[in-house]
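Weekly sync notes, structure subgroup
Attendees: PM, AL, DS (notes)

Item 1: joint prediction request from the bench team. They want all two components modeled as one assembly rather than separately. Inputs as received:
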Amino acid sequence: MRKAATDEIAPDEGDGPPGAGGPCADAKGAGPRGRGPRPAPAHAAVGARSGIPRRREALTGLAFVAPMLLLFIVFRFGPTLGAAFLSVTDYRLSGEWTFIGAGNYTRLLGDDLFWESLGVTAVYTALYVPMTVALALGTAVLLHRTLWMRGFFRGLFFLPYVTSIVLAAVIWKWIYEVQDGLLNASLRLLGAGPVDFLGSESLVLPSIAAASAWKGFGYSMLILLAGLQSIPREVTEAARIDGASGRQRFCWVTLPLLRPVLFFVLVIEAILGFQVFDAMYVMTAGGPVRASYSLVYFLYDSGFTFFDFGYASAVGLVLFAIVLVFSLIQRRLIGRDAD
Amino acid sequence: MAPPSTSAERAAAPAPAPGPVSQHPAATARPPRRAVARLGLPVLLALVAVVTVTPFAVMVLVAFAPAGGQTLPGAFDVGRATLDNFADVLAGADITRWAVNSLVYSLVSVLLILLFSSMAGYAFAKKRFPGREILFWSFLATLMVPFQATLIPYYILVSELGGVDTYWGLIVPTLANSQAVFLMRQFIVQLPDELFEAAKIDGASEWRIYTAVVLPLIRPVLATLGVFVFLWHWNDFLWPLVIGQSAEMRTLTVGLATLEGENVAINQVMAGATITVIPCLLVFGLLQRYLTDSIATSGLKS
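Output from the run, pasted for the record:
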């Protein structure tokens, strides 16, 4: 450990590039420079390198990247451009297509189903994000304060995250069941009437959001926990000595310091919220009366029920634009915080 | 070198600090609010634990209950527990085939993603070649594009190539994983160049350096990433749903969703769900171990 520490200090003397300049790191010449005037034979050798070894290095580099590069060209860059192209055509299952310009987009603007699905997605996201982040923050704070069996509880709370949304949906659909579901059976014991959680237009989105929050909060919990643990103990300790109560310390010291992490988690969950599909496909098939018919469900139906590939691609681009806006907001906020 | 050492510090720092101090006799003199707070913590933990575990408990209890005998978990009659639901669901649906599909999809993807992403990560970290920066950033930029946005061109591409209802059609498109490349590159960049130089001076070929030097050094990342990739694929839904159109090509996750949709008795659905979740839990055990392991090994590394 000690040896590593001195090594890390050395480049600083030489005003070395910050870690971000990763690729420059292999110019380990920075090491010898920091250590002073000692003649460095390795350095000289690097300098004497002629064009041939460098070309060899470039070729091996390209060869090692080649398989992944090929996959990315065919299956990432290609389809991304393809989506943009398809969205301005009327591409159908037969493979025939004509260029229709903004036709799909103007059609979207006049399509009630599209606006409905966008509204459902927005409401779902507005329910899902606070539920998930509140649960994640609450459990992260709990775990942070716990010393007894922390590892066990962290693992336990993370458990739903490693299962699939489909599994969560299947189980929660049963929990919400009107007749014998866990919730209604419990309500019956209390003498309360049955509640049709998934059959009611007003309850269906909160119910699905709660099931998704149960499944998804573990990821944000781990990130928030790491954020909490990176806050120096001295800071909260100083506030305590100054007489701040537990709640004051949390609201005025911990939360502001946690803000960048919290933003990150909020945006990540919002992006996930806008991509919701699996849970609705399994739990409600979009019902009742399309009360849980999300944007991706609309995309899926356009593509694989009506085989209207051009139209579905236009929906995909709308989703991309929304996610992009969220990512840019995130970058803005976190960037400003870093200043 | 920085991230591992800080994570090791994080793991080590909070543990010894406050525990014993608050156990001192002076603590008993504190006002009663402290006592409430100290009692509140375990109660809240237990509450969250119950909420987390209950759905799993419901699944297992309904799966083992006799047909039609599902009620509150408290009303579960251990004496009447049965394996019939598992036998019935295995007989009624091709679950074994679905499990094989899920295993092929997950394991082959893990192996190939680990191979290709470590190769690419090594090149991005340690080799100079023209276009390296642009390539790396364009790989990363694809993270911004949600999968669903490119679902249609994906499907058209794979179906034009004849990949619908095939293993390769299911697997190959998912191999272009930018997160894996990113993780590998970030890890390999920290390894000292001297290790590779020494092997080169000994006359090792580039491929030999990769297999004999790089791969052993990145074992912790391989393990961690492997677990994550396995879970992503095992739990994946939309892509297998779209590409596996015949019943034989369903994965377990897609199969479970169709069971749910086909009016199969709830006891059998839950038995199927229990089967689906077992590999996740097994792998989760591994993940836990590798989380702590990776901290330990990175501590050793520096």
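Discussion: Chain B is about 70% helix and 0% strand.
Action: AL to compare against the crosslinking data before next sync.
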